């Protein structure tokens, strides 16, 4: 039986030129930490307008590394959004910290600065913002709060490489910015991630943490090193970074295509009363990692299941983190705590969005959604 084709919610776009770059490295002497790693770090940092980049094995590893070098530890409270991928908060828990969720803005679906202020205590160490779907958070407000209360800001920008806030690319607003290069993201290295920062101390510490905590004390004693603080093996390979470099050359094309597809979706859905389309504020340029719509008045599950049956690989991003059993049991969160995030979740469906989507794919998704609303 022929396999039914599915339009997935997100996927990579890799061509022969990408593959050639990877093969070149595979034929060289370098497999792990070679020259392509630093080249990739510098290229991403330059693109984002920030001084330093440290490439690691995943976005999750980047979050963990950033939290550790920020000094996040047992007893600390970190303010973040419940509407994010689990890794944002899971890594806080691994550092011994408590994620303090606050509700989101109804329009941007990002953390609400008004709610942040209400949750600051003596234990608060940092704000972790998440640029949901590729739409930057309100950084003027977040940075104002951080400055007033002396808090670090870590931007989980795994959705937002290439996005702009007031004509400036994501990457330099916060103390550290986190990227992921998973295949559904804007560019891919297979698995991979990066921490961006303008802070030299964080940069040095991140490189040590990525490599077991090994500190070379002298160039003369080639074999000698010391561990001052234990780290992980969070290294990325040279051939992954060769793929990343090749992909980075195409990022503007990829983002343009994402924006064009979103414009087509918006045009088709904006006057349908059962659908709420995602918002893009005038002062941002979203890089549109995902396209989440909200379905009003109709059973979302029925629509979701029908779309899946028809080969539309939709998704739901995300069940708010405070509703997961772990976060309920460990920290006492419960249904009703964050009504805006919860109402969004009850209505949300993420539609397929990736640069290689064809015009035919887009028309099929639009048609199936509209037909299923009837
Ligand atoms: C907001 C957010 N943070 C962190 C991550 C983790 O990235 P990775 O899958 O590269 O570990 C993801 C991945 O989907 C994400 O969407």
The 3D shape can be described as globular
Largest beta sheet: strand ordering: 1-9-8-5-4-2-3
Radius of gyration: 21 Å
Bound small molecules, by name, code or SMILES, are: pyridoxal-5'-phosphate
N-end to C-end Cα span:
31 Å
Mean pLDDT: 96
Number of strands: 15
SSE succession: HHEHEHEHEHEEEEEHEEHHEEEHHHEH
Going by helix content, strand content and strand pairing, the class is alpha/beta
Beta fraction of the residues?
15-25%
Helical residues, percent? 25-40%
| Major β-sheet profile | 7 strands, mixed
Tell me which oligomeric state these chains represent.
Answer: single chain
Number of helices: 13
Q: List the uncertain runs.
A: none
Structure description:
The protein is α/β, with parallel strands linked by helices. Helix content is 38%, strand content 16%. It contains 13 helices and 15 strands. The two termini are 31 Å apart. The structure holds pyridoxal-5'-phosphate. The site of pyridoxal-5'-phosphate (PLP) has 15 residues, from helix 3 and helix 4.
């Amino acid at each position: 039986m022929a396999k039914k084709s599915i339009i997935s919610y997100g996927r990579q776009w890799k061509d022969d030129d990408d593959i050639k770059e990877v093969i070149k490295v595979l034929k060289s002497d370098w497999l792990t930490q070679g020259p392509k790693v630093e080249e990739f770090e510098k290229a991403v940092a330059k693109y984002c307008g920030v001084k330093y980049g440290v490439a690691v094995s995943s976005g999750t590893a980047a979050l963990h590394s950033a939290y550790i070098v920020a000094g996040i530890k047992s007893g600390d409270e970190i303010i973040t959004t419940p509407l994010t991928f689990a890794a944002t908060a899971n890594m806080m828990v691994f550092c011994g910290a408590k994620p303090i969720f606050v509700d989101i803005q109804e329009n941007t679906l990002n953390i609400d600065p008004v709610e942040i202020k209400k949750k600051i205590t003596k234990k608060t160490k940092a704000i972790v913002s998440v640029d949901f779907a590729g739409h930057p958070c309100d950084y003027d407000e977040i940075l104002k709060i951080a400055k007033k209360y002396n808090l670090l800001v870590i931007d989980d920008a795994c959705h937002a490489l290439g996005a702009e806030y007031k004509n400036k690319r994501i990457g330099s607003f916060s103390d550290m910015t986190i990227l992921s290069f998973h295949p559904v993201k804007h560019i891919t290295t297979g698995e991979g991630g990066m921490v961006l920062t303008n802070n030299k101390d964080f940069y040095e510490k991140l490189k040590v943490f990525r490599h077991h905590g090994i500190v070379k004390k002298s160039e003369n004693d080639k074999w000698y090193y010391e561990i001052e603080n234990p780290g992980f093996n969070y290294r990325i390979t040279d051939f992954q970074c060769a793929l990343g470099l090749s992909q980075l050359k195409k990022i503007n094309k990829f983002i343009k295509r994402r924006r064009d597809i979103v414009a087509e979706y918006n045009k088709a859905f904006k006057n349908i009363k059962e659908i709420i389309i995602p918002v893009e504020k005038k002062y941002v340029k979203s890089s549109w990692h995902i396209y989440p719509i909200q379905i009003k008045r109709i059973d979302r599950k029925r629509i979701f299941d029908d779309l899946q049956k028809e080969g539309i690989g939709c998704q739901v991003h995300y069940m708010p983190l405070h509703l997961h059993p772990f976060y309920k049991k460990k920290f006492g969160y419960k249904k009703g705590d964050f009504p805006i995030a919860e109402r969004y979740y009850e209505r949300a469906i993420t539609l397929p969005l990736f640069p290689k989507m064809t015009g035919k794919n887009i028309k099929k998704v639009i048609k199936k959604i509209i037909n299923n609303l009837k």
